[in-house]
Specification:
By secondary structure, this protein is of the alpha+beta class. It has one helix at residues 46-62, and strands at residues 3-12, 15-24, 33-34, 66-67. It has one helix and four strands.
Length: 75
């Protein structure tokens, strides 16, 4: 199972906000799933935290933004 980080748009009433989630089975769009909770960068050291942030930024820079409720691309 392949995964990566992705930005997802959330809506609550009139409020709209964006969070980073993990998305799974990125090679099979019909079976795509994502983490329920947003991801928070972390590390046991400052360098690990920086590495985590770089990995997130690399992934989200090349992926489309998806709607959290539907999984469809946001225009």
């Amino acid at each position: 199972m392949k995964w990566q980080y992705i930005i997802m748009r959330h809506t609550e009433g009139v409020a709209v906000y964006y969070r980073i989630h993990e998305i799974y089975d990125i090679d099979n769009p019909k079976e795509i799933t994502w983490s329920e909770t947003a991801e928070t960068p972390f590390g046991d050291t400052a360098e690990e935290l920086k590495s985590s942030l770089r990995m997130m930024l690399k992934d989200i820079s090349k992926a489309p933004v998806l709607d959290y409720e539907t999984g469809k691309k946001v225009k």
